[in-house]
Amino acid sequence: MFLTRALAATLAAVALLTQSGTAHSTDRQPLRYVSRLEEPVIHTDANSRRVHAFSSFELSFLIHNGRQKVRLSLAPNHDIISKDAVVHIMGPDGKVRAIEPLDRMEHKIYQGQAFVLREGHNDWENVGWARVNIRRDGVHPIFEGAFRIDGDDHHIQTDETYRKTKQRADPEIEWSPEEYMIVWRDSDIGASPHVHDGDDGPSQGELRKRDLSDRSPLCSSDGLDFNADDAHPIYRGLDTRDLDSGMSVNGLPRTLMRRQDQTQMGNGAGVNLASTVGSTAGCPTTRKVALLGVATDCTYGKLFNSSMAIRQNIIAQINTASQVYESSFNISLGIQNLTISDTNCPAQATEQAPWNVDCGGGVNITDRLNLFSAWRGNFKDRNAFWTLLTTCNTDAAVGLAWLGQLCVEGSVKSGSGNTNETIAGANVVVKTSQEWQVIAHEIGHTFGAVHDCQSGTCSDGTVTKQQCCPLSSSSCDAKGQFIMNPSTGSKITNFSPCTIGNICSAIGRNSVRSSCLASNKDVTTITGSQCGNGIVEAGEECDCGGTGGCKDNPCCDAKTCKFTSGSTCDFANEECCNRQCQFASAGTVCRASIGSCDPAETCSGTSGVCPTNVFAPNGQACGNSSENLACASGQCTSRNQQCKTLMGSLTTGNDTYACSNSGCQLSCASPEFGKDTCFTMMQNFLDGTACQGGDKCSNGACTGSSFAGEVGTWLTDNKNIVLPVACAVGGLVLLALLCCCWTAFARRKSRRLRKQRKKAAAAALAAKAQKQAMVSVNEVPLPGYQPPGGAYAQNQRTMNGNIRAPPAAATRDNSPHNNGQWQPPQRQYTSARYA
């Protein structure tokens, strides 16, 4: 492993600039006043009062009992829906059941200007902007939207929408068989007594930001390395850029609100939080229960007179926190395990419960969370998470939690940053007067939510990095109004719309696990059966939450928590129960498929329970083969696709891609971000996404990879380095081979030339020797013989000239010798005669 990393660090040239972030928008305080919208009229050129998606027209109406006349001049907003926009349909379990193209012609969305006709004036005055969605045109139009009058934002809602979204303290509105619209203003938000329709209403003005001192109780979860690591490695020699608000990279605007997110087929873990503000898509449509364990340390118990008092307080706090989860996410909180420590703190930490120590002693709130997480990791329960209650704060910190660890079993050690952390589904809450708010806040982190944006985080680029949640898609500062605000406050009672969208989309995309969420049926809790608490416990057939929760439920008797006469199931808690309170027929789809990696589940016809959600195996090929998509947690996706989903709206062409095939933290690049620039986000790739060494991501870690696999992955990721180096090395090897061949050829040629020279020399010597032998025959006379002169002598020379040289005399027997030279046979003469 070390060698692989060292090799990668030596040869690679990849810049990773850590930019972590998550976000959500905000809800509001109770309303003091609402007004009914009256006499709405659509004004068209043909006076038909009918409009289509590309119509330009005017819309007039009255508010405040007819005292305020309003006219909106509207034109189609072509920027709100991109040509590639798609819709994700989420199932009851929070999964995407279908993906459909968003047809622009089906949506009558308009923008324009607002005008008012003031009393005593004849001219219409332009007083601000307007945004409207026409739901029904014609003589009796129905629409929703917002407009501004003199800096005061006005919100238009139908009566049905208002009832579904109203807070408990909001004014009640009259019921009518005919749908109608109401208007409320930002200046109507407050805790003052209600002003009824017909009064002049409160004075207009913007909601003021709550004063937050430096010593306000804080959540310090952002300080955990695992949650937000600002020191990811930056390899030298490459460009790194900051995503500061107001700055740009190659002209790229620093905002996520410029246009809609282009979500495409094959969703990723990351989500552009601005695109999900207020959306409940992904959250369960039937009630689910998150079972939790709660432990108290020795310091917490000292605040109470008995263990029963401790128990009662904990149940009350969780019950209050549960209400906001029920109304926001359709998820109840139920205590399954409760551990109460003795009030006598041990002198030293024990091995069994090292977190149970007195305040001080060098153990801060971060240490306590790490120790508690390791302890929680020893339990193989089905709890969604564990909460530790204590009185030991560190400075102003009153809460701490690991981000997005819902339904994570066990614990894992992480060496990120400068500390060793133990990550688990756990959080720590310090006792305060706003205890249930802090509990709800820290559980929100466990569910994957991040802090609301404040003025500082809006201006320093945190919102662009998705490390905080904006108020809306067009406004950043949440003004400290909601539960995920970093500081506690006495008037914070609700999650913001952005937090709702943040958590629901995370559950729907499986970037936060939800497998441990139990169906609301036969749930066992430490509180025992309590009819009316919204949880179907042992001995109950149903529980719709008391008289108020059961008013629209014909299946359940609110007083007895038993089925009404003739009912066999409760559709509020069972997916395979129809509106007639009977089991759905066999084959009825209760959990639709979200794609090729998630087969649909169907009802059996004999039970109200939908079968367990089953996904295709991680790594199984899916979708378009040319895009290299594979199944991961039920999604047909890839590393590049997940980057497109998260950061695509930062670019004009959505050309983002994963920086590498290694690691499980989302790290994305784009030509528009700058050369060799990567941004690492605080979100992880989906569980099951391929990572280095051919293995898969699991809770942000790449598990099971081998040395050989990591080397192979590194070579694949660094082709721009490997190929040139390989070519250079290959060229050198080829050159060396050529040199060797040339040297061998030259050496062989040299040997051949030398051999030829030797042969030539030997031949020359032999010729010379032969020549010398011939000279001896011609010049040396035989003993006792004198050759005649004249013509005979000439004839003798001719004869000798035609005689071939015989072998050496030594090779012939009885041959006459003359110094080793063979002599031709001589004729013997008896006498000689001279003339």
UniProtKB/TrEMBL annotation:
<dbReference type="GO" id="GO:0004222">
    <property type="term" value="F:metalloendopeptidase activity"/>
</dbReference>
<keyword id="KW-1133">Transmembrane helix</keyword>
<protein>
    <recommendedName>
        <fullName>Disintegrin and metalloproteinase domain-containing protein B</fullName>
    </recommendedName>
</protein>
<keyword id="KW-0472">Membrane</keyword>
<keyword id="KW-0732">Signal</keyword>
<feature type="region of interest" description="Disordered">
    <location>
        <begin position="802"/>
        <end position="835"/>
    </location>
</feature>
<feature type="signal peptide">
    <location>
        <begin position="1"/>
        <end position="23"/>
    </location>
</feature>
<dbReference type="InterPro" id="IPR001590">
    <property type="entry name" value="Peptidase_M12B"/>
</dbReference>
<dbReference type="Pfam" id="PF13688">
    <property type="entry name" value="Reprolysin_5"/>
</dbReference>
<feature type="active site">
    <location>
        <position position="442"/>
    </location>
</feature>
<feature type="binding site">
    <location>
        <position position="451"/>
    </location>
    <ligand>
        <name>Zn(2+)</name>
    </ligand>
</feature>
<dbReference type="InterPro" id="IPR024079">
    <property type="entry name" value="MetalloPept_cat_dom_sf"/>
</dbReference>
<keyword id="KW-0812">Transmembrane</keyword>
<feature type="binding site">
    <location>
        <position position="445"/>
    </location>
    <ligand>
        <name>Zn(2+)</name>
    </ligand>
</feature>
<dbReference type="InterPro" id="IPR001762">
    <property type="entry name" value="Disintegrin_dom"/>
</dbReference>
<comment type="function">
    <text>Probable zinc protease.</text>
</comment>
<dbReference type="GO" id="GO:0006508">
    <property type="term" value="P:proteolysis"/>
</dbReference>
<dbReference type="GO" id="GO:0046872">
    <property type="term" value="F:metal ion binding"/>
</dbReference>
<keyword id="KW-0479">Metal-binding</keyword>
<feature type="transmembrane region" description="Helical">
    <location>
        <begin position="721"/>
        <end position="745"/>
    </location>
</feature>
<dbReference type="InterPro" id="IPR036436">
    <property type="entry name" value="Disintegrin_dom_sf"/>
</dbReference>
<feature type="region of interest" description="Disordered">
    <location>
        <begin position="191"/>
        <end position="215"/>
    </location>
</feature>
<feature type="domain" description="Disintegrin">
    <location>
        <begin position="528"/>
        <end position="618"/>
    </location>
</feature>
<feature type="compositionally biased region" description="Polar residues">
    <location>
        <begin position="812"/>
        <end position="835"/>
    </location>
</feature>
<dbReference type="InterPro" id="IPR006586">
    <property type="entry name" value="ADAM_Cys-rich"/>
</dbReference>
<feature type="domain" description="Peptidase M12B">
    <location>
        <begin position="287"/>
        <end position="503"/>
    </location>
</feature>
<keyword id="KW-1015">Disulfide bond</keyword>
<keyword id="KW-0862">Zinc</keyword>
<dbReference type="InterPro" id="IPR034028">
    <property type="entry name" value="ZnMc_ADAM_fungal"/>
</dbReference>
<feature type="binding site">
    <location>
        <position position="441"/>
    </location>
    <ligand>
        <name>Zn(2+)</name>
    </ligand>
</feature>
<dbReference type="Pfam" id="PF00200">
    <property type="entry name" value="Disintegrin"/>
</dbReference>
